[in-house]
Amino acid sequence: MEKWKAPKKPRIGIYTMGLKAYWNQFPGLRERLLHYGQFISDKITALGGEVFFYGLADCEEAGRECGEYFNSHNVDLIFAHSGTYVNSSSVLPIHQICRVPVVVLNLQPAARIAYDRTTTGEWLAHCGACPVPELSNAFHRSGIACRIINGLLGLDHTPDISLTEENTASRPEAIKAWKEIGEWVKAAAVKRELSGCRFGFLGNTYNGMLDMYSDFTMIQAQTGAHIEILEMCDLNRELLQVTEEEVLAKKQEILEFFLISEEKAADPLAQKPTEEQLDWSARVAAAQERLVRDYGLDALTYYYHGSPGGEYEKLQSGFIVGHSLLTARGIPCAGEGDLKTCLAMKICDILGTGGSFCEIVTVDYEDGTILLGHDGPFHLAIAKGKPILRGMGLYHGKQGTGVSVEAKVRTGPITNLACTQTIDGRLKFIITEAQSTDGPIMTIGNTQTPVKFKKDPDSYMDEWFAEAPTHHFAMSVGHNASVMEKVSEILGIPCVTLDK
Asked: Closest by alpha carbon to 457, among 485, 478, 437, 482?
């Protein structure tokens, strides 16, 4: 499904470092290093970054100017290209002025130098590794964290220094380096998207779920996201404005993305939805879309208990279908008032990997899998086949009846991202890579995915529970631990990766 909002591009600062004294001594060296810096800038632009290339930082004055330049463009991340030797005093001011995460790029332009033909100037074009220990030391003593990527620049050709016609971009040293660079760009995109992101909080948290309770100020302080507190009357106001044309459009959308259950399920509570239930789900879905658009929401956390038989109980009974449609449109929706898992879902969605609302359902000791899912909503973009809609006689543990989604995440590699809170009030990510299988699921109108972890179920649960997670998490497709760890670092939120 097409997302409603165009993604924000991360703002990436780039500079190339060198020693000013070299330029008069070795004509052409300065221009060559700038060429390499521009090559990096062009590739990062192609990876989706909005690039601000300062040029050469080759003395203390240039370093201070470079830091101010990056500040003026509000960059999210700096790539410091180590082109040749540089005094650390030329580079340190950049990062003292612009205090954003920094990744040093030690990318050699060729796999080896031509030993018998190499001049001093030629060697200097290859000695990007030389200043990196000095930079690392200066950063450490100044309290500046940095990451370093070593490898090949990956030019299709390198002027004047190629020993063969070999394409250095195909070498594993270049591939690995650029994969890591790409992950940092994605991590910076998460930071950019979350800054000013609007999370709606509709209703309240499920009463008594102590792990769900969240401090709104804490969320904004640590992620930059705004929490918009909404009431059921806000949604009801939108419902009263829904037109019949909007309802018909939602019904068509529902038929496009779901299968309507025809068969009888094992559970008598989960049967074919009635026309009245489908009509109500479509009507509520139209109101939910109106709410998201009117409040400019980028994500939504919700739960409402309500009085038995009350109007708002009926309203919340139609939530699951519409919230699944919104989740597929890039507006992740998390039930039971779970704001922290909604954050995890949003991160997965920004990374383009889905992010479906999950908890542990049951263990299959014969298959060695754990069934993961929930009673909704579901991320349609990562489904195996079309999800099934079932009419529920009741929502277990909740009030009301309505339509629910039965589905599984497609078979293959998955990554679970959990967001919890520590005793000191800090957010914490817990990451696990695993494999979803095509095992059987229950016909009870809930989302369920059988997952095989690297360890047996009990050993895995021993590790998972020891990290004090919440009982919800987001499931994404693909093995994404590496990029999620970078998201954690760029946001300043600690993480633990299990089964690594």
From this structure: 437
Residues 6 or more apart whose CB falls under 8 angstroms from that of 472 comprise 212, 334, 336, 338, 340, 341, 357, 358, 359, 374, 418
What is the model's pLDDT at position 376?
A: 73
Residues 255, 246: Cα–Cα separation, whole Å: 14
Mind listing the pLDDT tens digit for each residue in 139-165? 999 999 999 999 999 987 554 444 344
Handedness of CA 137, 142, 147, 148 (dihedral sign): negative
Count CB atoms within 10 A of the CB of residue 422.
Answer: 11
Q: Report the amino acid identity of residue 282.
A: A
Structure tokens given for 252: 């068509």
For 174, 292, 301, 385, the CA distances from 228, given in Å and listed in that order, are 44, 11, 10, 34
What does pTM read for this prediction?
0.92
Three-state secondary structure string covering the chain: CCCCCCCCCCEEEEEEECCCCHHHHCCCHHHHHHHHHHHHHHHHHHCCCEEEEEEEECCHHHHHHHHHHHHHCCCCEEEEEECCCCCHHHHHHHHHHCCCCEEEEEEECCCCCCCCCCCHHHHHCCCCCCCHHHHHHHHHHCCCCEEEEEEECCCCCCCCCCCCCCCHHHCHHHHHHHHHHHHHHHHHHHHHHHCCCEEEEEECCCCCCCCCCCCHHHHHHHHCCEEEEECHHHHHHHHHHCCHHHHHHHHHHHHHHCEECCCCCCCCCEECCCHHHHHHHHHHHHHHHHHHHHHCCCEEEEECCCCCCCHHHHHHCCHHHHHHHHHHCCCCEECCCCHHHHHHHHHHHHCCCEEEEEEEEEEECCCCEEEEEECCCCCHHHECCCCEEEEECCCCCCCCCEEEEECCECCEEEEEEEEEECCCCCEEEEEEEEEECCCCCCCCCCEEEEEECCCCHHHHHHHHHHCCCCCCEEEEECCCHHHHHHHHHHHCCCEEEECC
pLDDT one-digit tens code per residue, 25-65: 999 999 999 999 999 999 999 999 999 999 999 999 999 99
